[in-house]
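Colleagues,

For the teaching module next term, I've prepared a clean inverse folding example: a structure given as tokens, and then the sequence designed for it. I'd like students to try predicting residues themselves before seeing the answer, so please don't circulate the second half yet.
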């Protein structure tokens, strides 16, 4: 992905990754997450309204594109501090290019001869996709330079050249505040960190929400149970929902989300390189400097971990079921120091959107059963038959 999104926390080598982790950690702290709550509410409310025409007409629609656009708008606002709509044509070009970047990662997997950088460079020029890369980099670079100029201009009136992490309102503010103190965290590095977070975050959350909605539509009893939990916790006034709702409550809804991610993991495989020799429990020796791939999707269907792995069953993530499984048996967000830095943000965002949707609509679908044969894979796992949902206003 580096030709499109650059190098950052997702794909940096160890020493550079450590720097990224240290700089970005405050962006997903409790203080910052509390600042995102209103953004989650806004995103969820807007998404509910986007589905209103379908509910009024009774038409069944594929929900993925609308959810992807909604999540992209939300994460851009959290990361860059601007509304996509306010950016006009530049914002539209940026969103289209983000989606194109995710497609291109899949293309290089499907056609391995495009992996060598020099060949891929020729391919980009031949197909005209270099223009998409320009659009992708233009908006965050423009916003970054404007913010940096504002900081420089304010130096005469204020001796404090940087905002501290606690006062940062967006991720780009935080990165700018760190750029003067972290060696090598320059404009390009900040831009690449933002691009990687925006692209990977928008794609994975959109797929999880779409699959979850489809599972609720197919499994009416599970949908009803999740709806009743939401009704017990909240009132008719959406404004009363707080950060606690998205972190400490709605446990059954969280089980449904985790089960969705088990069956339809947004990330299929994760890879590491060993830095020392490792001896496994069966005395197998894994040499140092060995490339190791862990196929998360296959582990999620392991019958030794899940009694009926092809059945959608939120009870797989009850407290008791989790205790009975070995540590590290669930790797959708990774494990250890290089686990997903934004997992709390992602879970809060997904919970908020599904809560608002289930409170507003009853979901049904022409699809009555979903099997592994309905899946296709590239960078992520997707549905071959789409995500057709019929909305009925509650």
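(Answer key — instructors only)
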């Amino acid at each position: 992905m580096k030709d499109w999104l650059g190098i950052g926390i997702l794909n940096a080598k160890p020493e550079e990754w450590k720097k990224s982790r240290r700089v970005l950690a405050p962006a997903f702290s409790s203080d910052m997450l509390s600042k995102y709550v209103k953004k989650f509410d806004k995103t969820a409310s807007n998404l509910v309204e986007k589905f209103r025409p379908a509910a009024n007409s009774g038409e069944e629609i594929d929900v993925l594109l609308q959810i992807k656009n909604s999540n992209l708008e939300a994460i851009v606002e959290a990361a860059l501090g601007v509304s996509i709509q306010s950016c006009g044509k530049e914002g539209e070009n940026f969103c289209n290019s983000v989606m194109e970047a995710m497609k291109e990662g899949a293309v290089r997997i499907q056609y391995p001869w495009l992996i060598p950088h020099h060949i891929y460079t020729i391919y980009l020029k031949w197909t005209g996709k270099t223009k998409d890369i320009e659009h992708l980099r233009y908006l965050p670079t423009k916003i970054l330079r404007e913010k940096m100029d504002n900081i420089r201009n304010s130096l005469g009136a204020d001796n404090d050249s940087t905002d501290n992490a606690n006062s940062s309102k967006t991720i780009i503010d935080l990165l700018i505040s760190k750029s003067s103190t972290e060696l090598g965290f320059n404009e390009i590095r900040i831009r690449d960190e933002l691009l990687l977070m925006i692209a990977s975050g928008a794609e994975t959350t959109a797929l999880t929400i779409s699959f979850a909605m489809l599972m609720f539509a197919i499994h009416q009893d599970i949908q009803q149970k999740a709806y009743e939990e939401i009704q017990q916790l909240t009132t008719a006034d959406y404004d009363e929902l707080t950060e606690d709702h998205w972190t400490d409550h709605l446990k059954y809804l969280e089980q449904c989300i985790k089960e969705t991610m088990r069956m339809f993991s947004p990330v299929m495989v994760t890879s590491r390189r060993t830095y020392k020799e490792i001896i496994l429990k069966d005395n197998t020796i894994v040499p140092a400097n060995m490339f190791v791939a862990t196929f998360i999707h296959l582990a999620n269907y392991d019958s030794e971990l899940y009694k009926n792995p092809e059945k959608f069953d939120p009870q797989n993530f009850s407290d008791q079921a989790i205790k009975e499984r070995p540590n590290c048996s669930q790797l959708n967000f990774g494990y250890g120091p290089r686990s997903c830095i934004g997992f709390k943000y992602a879970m809060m965002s997904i919970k908020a959107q599904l809560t608002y949707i289930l409170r507003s609509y009853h979901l049904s679908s022409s699809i009555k059963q979903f099997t592994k044969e309905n899946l296709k894979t590239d960078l992520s796992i997707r549905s071959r038959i789409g995500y057709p949902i019929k909305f009925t206003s509650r």
